[in-house]
């Protein structure tokens, strides 16, 4: 019997057990370990909250991840049931039977399996363990190992915890909704009940209106955070938080009021931004950077590979600076949408395309007032971006002849699969009045482009129009 058949049989057995949930819960102490993962997956997908709580209580592996699983039930209800099932284990729980759970990972992650492969039975390892916090399992076990190596482990002087340390991994969104507030209150209560033994590890934090959530931030270990998104915060509030999230690899800031950009505050922002050595992704939206981009690029890591700068009031000087920066030769993702960077000259952007041509995979230049002349001028440089997979240049005044010329040039880019193009100007009675769109003309445009793609044997490439 092959492995695939075995897995299928286990899945069928799990679904059969769930037909009688009370009996299945009663049998958890007796079912084989191999059945736990398929039974958990089936229970999660089916929204069996009581079963999930019971399974967490007796989970026979070191870690448990929800990974790519999804459910029709309330997401928070499912998480609360699993958290409620957490049991802090007595120290030195070496029994080969019974619960072993040390790490409960409630983050959605498409690349994560339900359990990590058990490389060894003596030292089981979880690839998602927290590596930053002093309260993490890894740090605590390192400290205990160091004490044992000093030869005092048998002297009775080694400090022993009455309970095994555990980790709860969860992404948090502070959005002020009633259900979110209820979940956060429940979460805080659980951690406080097990203070010193349960480490809450938040890797991704979203904050909507910073001023409304300062109390919960005091509860989090901000050194664990790797992805931070902030919307509608003063720059001084951003600075205060940046000083504590030193391990970020992704930072997103949106709607930061320009009136909060006092010179001293902006300098502090740049200072702390420059401390983020692991930063790979930076997204600033509605963040005024006119003639200031050089200061920002001077402090962010040269290996930055994702840069989103829509609605940042960028100037041609800023584009020139970007084209000359050390980051330009590393960028995989770039968005300059909603900046009038083509109002004067196109040469800075053309130079930028030449610099990013060997790495760029995703480019967005929507609503930048790109004209036929500009697009035709930068087309040769664009054609050399051989790794490009996604191109979006919607809401620009382009005519049909230039659009067809662009398609003919871009079909040679074999990795390019998705193009979001602007509705050609002839499809509108008035270009500035988008309610005047002629849908029949747009349908004809789409038919022509699809015929050209078919003729170029690029049926694998999708061209889609986007109108306001």
At a glance:
With 468 residues, this protein is α/β, with parallel strands linked by helices. Helices cover 36% and strands 13% of the residues. An eleven-stranded parallel β-sheet has the order 4-6-7-8-9-10-11-12-13-14-15.
Task: List the topology elements.
Layout: H1 3-18, H2 21-26, H3 36-46, H4 49-57, E1 63-65, H5 75-84, E2 103-105, H6 137-149, E3 166-169, E4 172-174, H7 178-193, E5 198-201, E6 204-208, H8 214-217, E7 227-231, H9 235-242, E8 250-254, H10 263-273, E9 281-285, H11 293-299, E10 306-308, H12 316-323, E11 333-335, H13 347-356, E12 362-364, H14 372-382, E13 390-392, H15 400-410, E14 418-422, H16 439-455, E15 462-466
Parallel strand pairs: 1-2, 2-3, 3-5, 4-6, 6-7, 7-8, 8-9, 9-10, 10-11, 11-12, 12-13, 13-14, 14-15
Give an overview in words.
The protein has 468 residues and is of the alpha/beta class. It has 16 helices and 15 strands. 36% of the residues lie in helices and 13% in strands. The strands form 2 sheets. The chain has an 11-stranded parallel sheet with strand order 4-6-7-8-9-10-11-12-13-14-15. A 4-stranded parallel sheet has the order 1-2-3-5, with no helix packed on it. Helix 4 packs parallel to helix 5, helix 14 packs parallel to helix 15 and helix 15 runs parallel beside helix 16.
């Amino acid at each position: 019997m092959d492995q695939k058949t075995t897995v299928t049989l286990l899945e069928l057995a799990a679904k059969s057990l769930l037909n009688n949930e009370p009996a299945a819960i009663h049998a958890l102490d007796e079912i084989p370990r191999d059945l736990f993962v398929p039974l958990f997956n089936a229970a999660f997908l089916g929204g069996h909250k009581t079963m999930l709580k019971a399974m967490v209580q007796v989970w026979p592996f070191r870690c448990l991840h929800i990974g790519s699983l999804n459910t029709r039930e309330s997401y928070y209800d499912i998480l609360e049931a699993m958290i409620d099932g957490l049991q802090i284990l007595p120290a030195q729980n070496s029994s080969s039977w019974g619960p072993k759970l040390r790490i409960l990972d409630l983050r959605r992650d498409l690349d994560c399996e339900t359990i990590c492969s058990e490389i060894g039975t003596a030292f089981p390892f979880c690839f998602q363990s927290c590596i930053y916090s002093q309260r993490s399992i890894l740090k605590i076990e390192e400290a205990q190992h160091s004490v044992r190596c000093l030869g005092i482990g048998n002297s009775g002087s080694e400090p022993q915890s009455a309970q095994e340390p555990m980790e709860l991994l969860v992404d948090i969104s502070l959005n002020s909704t009633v259900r979110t507030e209820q979940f956060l209150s429940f979460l805080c209560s659980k951690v406080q009940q097990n203070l010193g033994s349960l480490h809450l590890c938040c890797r991704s934090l979203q904050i909507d209106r910073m001023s409304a959530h300062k109390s919960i931030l005091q509860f989090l270990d901000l050194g664990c955070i790797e992805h931070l998104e902030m919307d509608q915060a003063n720059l001084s509030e951003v600075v205060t938080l940046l000083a504590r999230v030193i391990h970020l690899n992704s930072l997103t800031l949106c709607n930061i009021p320009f009136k909060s950009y006092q010179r001293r505050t902006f300098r502090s922002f740049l200072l702390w931004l420059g401390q983020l050595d692991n930063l790979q992704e930076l997204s600033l939206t509605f963040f005024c950077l006119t003639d200031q981009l050089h200061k920002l690029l001077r402090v962010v890591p040269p290996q930055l590979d994702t840069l989103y700068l829509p609605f940042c009031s960028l100037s041609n000087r800023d584009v020139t600076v970007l084209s000359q920066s050390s980051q330009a030769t590393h960028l995989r993702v770039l968005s300059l949408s909603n900046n009038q960077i083509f109002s004067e000259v196109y040469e800075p952007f053309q130079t930028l395309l030449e610099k990013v041509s060997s790495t760029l995979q995703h480019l967005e230049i929507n609503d930048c007032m790109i004209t036929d002349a500009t697009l035709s001028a930068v087309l040769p440089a664009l054609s050399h971006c051989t790794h490009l997979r996604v191109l979006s240049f919607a809401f620009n005044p382009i005519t049909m002849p230039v659009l067809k010329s662009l398609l003919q040039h871009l079909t040679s880019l074999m990795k390019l699969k998705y193009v979001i193009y602007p509705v050609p100007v002839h499809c509108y009675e008035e270009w500035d009045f988008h309610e005047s769109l002629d849908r029949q003309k747009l349908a004809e445009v789409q038919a022509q482009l699809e015929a050209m793609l078919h003729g170029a044997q690029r049926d694998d490439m999708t061209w889609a129009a986007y109108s306001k």
